[in-house]
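== Item description ==
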Amino acid sequence: MRAIYGKKLIMTRMFDKAGKFIPVTVLNVAENVVVQEKTQEKNGYQAIQLGACLKRHLNKPEQGHLAKSKAKSAKLFEVKTNQKYNVGDKITLDIFLVGEKVNITGISKGKGFMGTVARHNFNTGPKTHGSNNYRQPGSIGDTGPQRVVKGKRMAGHMGAEKVTVKNSEIIHIDKEKDQLILRGPVPGPNRSGVVIWTNKEIVKKEAADEA
């Protein structure tokens, strides 16, 4: 598995060589640092913990956890991988190639409290003839259970959930600006954090060029 943490900058558009319109999202991906190793012998599985986003002031537990890597990371996340890394190694955009498909995981935009029509796409009632049931949820169940069944679709808080967009194509990689440009949308508002990841092993650039 390959993964890196970044921030969503803006959604815009690009044009390919044929002049075709392409909706894209620009991500800012700074260096991710390996802050901890997890081995099969000690932890029962092989993985690394990555740290990203600079944090000005670390508390005592954070200082102890990040002392070996000498990082000041605000975001920590774990990546299962068969590749060998050492604490302090930096993960950059070199792990991805232009044209490959990746997944993006982030927190979707919060919409606040919404009714059943907006939240679950319920049908509305009749507008005329004195109907008082235009946007109301209506009946929520029979009298058998004598309670509201769990999972019932009702009004409530909408959005602000963990969302994964799969198979987004990498359009361009700008290593000088630490930017990654992906085709299509990315979950979350601008300046929100996202994880770009894929379960596929890295492809050597030499083999990709020959193909």
